[in-house]
Specification:
Layout lengths: L1 H9 L20 E6 L10 H10 L6 H10 L21 H8 L3 H4 E6 L2 E2 L6 E6 L2 E6 L4 H4 L21 E2 L3 E2 L21 E5 L8 H4 L5 E6 L12 E3 L25 H4 L17 H18 L8 H4 L5
Helix pairs in contact: 3-4
Length: 319
């Protein structure tokens, strides 16, 4: 009995796998986020010229080019190879400048077919701010349903995109009576007939190896509608003049409500209502990862301790 109790005390949760088929319409179609590798229109900033000028004679950069170069450095993975900037001369609206330099959604996302129907991309996709800059997402929850308005920077919410009110939660599924036209969109069958097809384009003159490297085209991430995608770490590549096909086989894992009586640190996971986040309305692994990054960034910038659980607990399974 002593050995059995010790084993239970160390690992009180048992995962039992019992395969059971369920209708695919009970879960949402995944959200898909597409991020162009080209961060600026050629007419707004000639990155090659700006970098060459910065490296040889920084004083020759005009004010607009300098501020544009500083802004784009925040979303270019190769900026660590650039020459370091001198101290800034004043306040800079980095996000607004990134939005000005980026091409609008309708210029990048040329065609969309949802459930085989030709659908204007701007009616089913939203613009959003991520670590890759300005990206475009299909089937995401509204940004104000994901972020807490009173805690997050307004830069993450200042996008004029209209998204339907959500009929779905991760722990409760779709609300009763939501119907087949519920939001987020749900698949009605398997195969391409119930999928999404995108056609996207980047102008050749906008492609800059100093920001995107040797790759061209886009990154894209597949994630849950209530998650903020980590496009810097988890993504697929979609190069120019090529096609990418992704097949998804969903799995649903249920957790017994009886586990709520067990301490979270013993069961090694949180239920959604047990772990409130500072910047997000919704607790899940990806949003928690973003919050951990934000906490560590704040500590590094201010040296002020932030109250949060260790990363090990923040990354535990949700329901």
């Amino acid at each position: 009995m002593f050995k059995m109790y010790g084993k239970w005390d160390q690992n009180p949760v048992t995962i039992v796998y019992g395969s059971d088929l369920m209708p695919i319409s009970t879960i949402p179609f995944p959200a898909i986020t597409i991020c162009p590798l080209s961060k600026s229109r050629e007419g707004m900033l000639n990155l090659t010229w700006a970098l060459d000028t910065m490296n040889h004679n920084y004083t020759m950069l005009d004010d607009v080019s300098e501020k544009s170069l500083r802004a784009i450095a925040h979303v270019c993975p190769f900026q660590k190879h650039w020459k370091k900037f001198p101290p800034s001369s004043g306040n800079e609206n980095i996000i607004e400048r990134l939005r000005t330099m980026a091409r609008p959604l309708e210029d990048v996302m040329i065609k969309c077919w949802w459930r085989t129907r030709d659908t204007p991309c701007k009616t089913i996709m939203i613009e959003r701010l991520l670590d890759d800059g300005i990206c475009y997402t299909f089937n995401s929850l509204a940004l104000d349903e994901i972020y807490k308005k009173d805690q997050i920077s307004p830069d993450f919410l200042n996008f004029s995109n209209v998204v339907h009110v959500s009929d779905w939660t991760r722990e409760g599924g779709y609300r009763p009576g939501a119907g087949f036209n519920a939001y987020p969109h749900r698949p009605l069958s398997n195969g391409q007939i119930s999928g999404i097809v995108f056609a996207a384009a980047i102008r050749q003159e906008d492609q800059e190896p100093f920001c995107s490297g040797t790759h061209t085209g886009f990154k894209f991430a597949v994630h849950a509608p209530d998650e903020v995608p980590l496009t810097e770490e988890r993504f697929y590549r979609w190069n120019n003049m090529s096609a990418a096909v992704v097949t998804i086989s969903p799995e649903v894992i249920d957790v017994s409500e009886k586990l709520k009586s067990v301490d979270p640190f013993k069961r090694n996971c949180f239920f959604v209502d047990e772990r409130p986040l500072q910047f997000f309305h919704l607790y899940n692994q990806m949003n928690c990862a973003f919050e951990c990054i934000a906490n560590h960034t704040l500590v590094g910038l201010t040296n002020v301790p932030i109250n949060y659980f260790p990363i090990k607990m923040n990354f535990m399974r949700d329901k």
